[in-house]
Amino acid sequence: MELTRSPRVKALLKSRYPQLVLFVLMLAGFVFAILAGFIGTPVGSHNFSIVFVWIAWWAILILVAVPFFGRGWCAVCPIPVAGDWLQRGAVLNPAPKTPKWLGLRVPAKFRNMWMQNISFTLVALFSSVILTTPVVTSVVLAAMLFLAIGLSMVFERRAFCRYLCPVGGFIGLYAQTAPIELRIKDKNVCAKCVGKPCYNGSDLGSGCPWDVFPGGLTKNTYCGLCLECLRTCPHDNIAINARPFSADLARPSAKLDEAFKAFIMLGAALIYAYVLMGSSGAAKLAAYNVFTPAWFVYAAIFLTVIFILLPGLYWLVISITPRGRGVGVREFAIASTPLIPLGLMFWVAFSLSFVLTNATYILAALSDPLGLGWNLFGTAALAWQPLLSAFIAPAQSLALVGGLAWAARTAQKTAPQAGISSAPVISYCLAVTLLMIWLLL
Q: Which string of DSSP letters, residue by residue, matches 223-285?
């Protein structure tokens, strides 16, 4: 169903001003979060940088934005905004044909998801400190902002978002399951279009900042929903559509970098459930005390699980069956597709517990964002208590069982495309789901 069929919806999306207002508000909040981490209280549960980034924003991202709007967060993300403005030399005007800065093309060997895989893994390894120490959160946020600005001055388009952002990689992976997509209406119109302004830009807007030609777009993974193509298309051939969940997964990717992103996200969810929500004090201390011998053991286990154990066992499981003999890289990548909805539901289940357990900190931080004794809205002294305690376990169980069913259904559709049986894939998904249930419940 085309959502942009409505003239009002289309006019709203084509106008730059609503998006600009959101950009300014998001950027102001982002900068304040950075400042709060540096000048506010070092107590993470009372500092705006921790509470609003890792509780409020994370809840919106994982529980709402990614499952229902896919790349919707990328459409309003403040991190690339300043770099975009500098790159264009303007706030609203499109980018000039002649670059104001170097405008180099990112080398071909980096135009994939591997750098995002590495950046997410690095953030994940230090997550226990990042999620609890305001100044470390601020350093990470500031580093992402300045990297985005610096790369915009060296490379064309949004190099940081496309190839380095640790958040963008998993949003792109799970955006394939979302019921929102940007697509062309008629391929013949694109084929006949002169100049391809949707990709190259025109007086109406910039060329696609995500380096995607809409005429060849078949998946949500690399489209950032920036809406520039909607504004620049002279033939009204771009549409925002509502569609069934996981529509993209019917055309599974054969790329190994995307497959490993699925394993990284799956493994990180399992490890976070054990370390952050589990009862093991030793695991928590090891993850928090970075660069100690215990942390190096934790890091080694973390890397082994996500890069060796989970993918290795998966390859073994799908290879030992008669139909799985001779599984190569392409077949392995395609066969990993069911782990995408499974991993998303793992993160939903984990986040339900993490967010609802810590949600009362949001109201306290609203009144005293820097932990300096303010009480702007009368909620600064609100005592901590978990919210909806009786709801958490049933909701997590529903998410995990639903994720398993979703993965099983996806396996039935995609396993034949990899030349394997769906049974070992479903068995693997069942095993890791039971593990996640044990860790969380």
A: -----HHHHH-TT--EEEEE--TTGGGGS----HHHHHHHHHHHHHHHHHHHHTSSS-HHHHH
